[in-house]
C-alpha cells in the first residue's frame, strides 16, 4: 500500500451548498465577480491528481457537458461506481461495482492523489465508511436556492483541520480541510 496516498473529496459548490441547478446547467460556474485581493484563477483539475472516482450520475453529466466544454479529467484514470451499463467514450474510464473499501484499498496501491469528484450519495458513502482523508471545496460567489445538495444527511461527526484557504480574483474561495481521526 502507498502510505502517502490521500483520498480527497473535491467539489465545486454554491455558497448555499448546491453542486448543480435542478436542470444540471452550469452557467453559474462562470462568475463575473471581481475580488481585487484574490490570486489568479485555479487550475480546473490539478496535475498532481493521479486518479478520479465518481458516481454514475456525475459521469453521465460530465459526458454530456464534455460535448461543449471538453472532458475535464484529461487522460487521468477515472473510476465510475455503477451497477448500470454506461457508454464508454474514453479509454481512461473504468467502471466498478464492488465495495468502496475494496476499491480504495486497490487504488491506494497505485495512486497517491485520489480525488472523489462527484455525487452527494458517493460522498456520503465515503464519509460514513471513513475512507476520505481530506476535503477540497471550491465555493463560488452565488446562492442558488434550489438544486442538488453537496451533502446528503451524513450520520457521523468529523472534526476537521483547516489546511489552506485561497481566494481567487473571480470571487471563488477554496477551502482545504484534513479530516482528523
Word description of this protein:
- With 181 residues, the chain is α/β, with parallel strands linked by helices.
- It has one domain (6-179): 3-Layer(aba) Sandwich (Dihydrofolate Reductase, subunit A).
- It contains three helices and ten strands; from the N terminus they run βββαββαβαββββ.
- The protein has helices at 56-69, 100-110, 120-128; strands at residues 6-14, 18-20, 51-55, 78-81, 93-96, 113-116, 134-140, 148-149, 160-167, 173-179.
- A hairpin with a 5-residue loop joins β9 (160-167) and β10.
- It is globular, with a radius of gyration of 16 Å.
Overall shape: it is globular
Fraction of residues in H or I helices: 10-25%
Uncertain regions: pLDDT < 50 for 5+ in a row? none
Would you report the number of β strands?
10
Number of helices: 3
Content-based structural category:
alpha/beta
Give the overall average pLDDT.
90
Annotated CATH architecture = 3-Layer(aba) Sandwich
Q: What is the subunit organization of this protein?
A: single chain
Strand order of the largest sheet: 5-4-3-6-1-7-10-9
Amino acid at each position: 500500500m502507498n502510505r502517502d496516498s490521500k483520498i480527497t473529496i473535491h467539489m465545486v459548490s454554491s455558497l448555499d451548498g448546491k453542486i448543480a441547478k435542478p436542470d444540471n446547467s452550469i452557467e453559474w460556474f462562470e462568475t463575473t465577480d471581481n475580488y481585487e485581493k484574490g490570486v489568479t484563477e485555479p487550475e480546473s483539475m490539478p496535475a498532481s491528481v493521479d486518479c478520479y472516482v465518481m458516481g454514475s450520475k456525475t459521469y453521465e453529466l460530465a459526458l454530456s457537458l464534455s460535448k461543449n466544454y471538453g472532458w475535464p479529467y484529461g487522460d487521468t484514470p477515472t473510476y465510475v461506481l455503477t451497477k448500470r451499463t454506461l457508454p464508454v467514450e474514453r479509454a481512461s474510464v473504468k467502471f466498478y461495482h464492488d465495495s468502496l473499501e475494496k476499491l480504495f484499498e486497490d487504488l491506494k496501491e497505485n495512486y497517491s492523489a485520489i480525488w472523489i469528484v462527484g455525487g452527494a450519495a458517493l460522498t456520503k458513502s465515503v464519509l460514513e465508511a471513513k475512507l476520505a482523508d481530506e476535503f477540497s471545496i471550491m465555493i463560488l460567489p452565488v446562492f442558488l436556492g434550489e438544486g442538488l445538495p453537496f451533502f446528503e444527511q451524513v450520520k457521523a461527526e468529523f472534526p476537521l483541520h483547516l489546511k489552506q484557504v485561497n481566494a481567487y480574483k473571480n470571487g471563488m474561495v477554496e477551502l482545504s480541510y484534513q479530516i482528523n481521526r
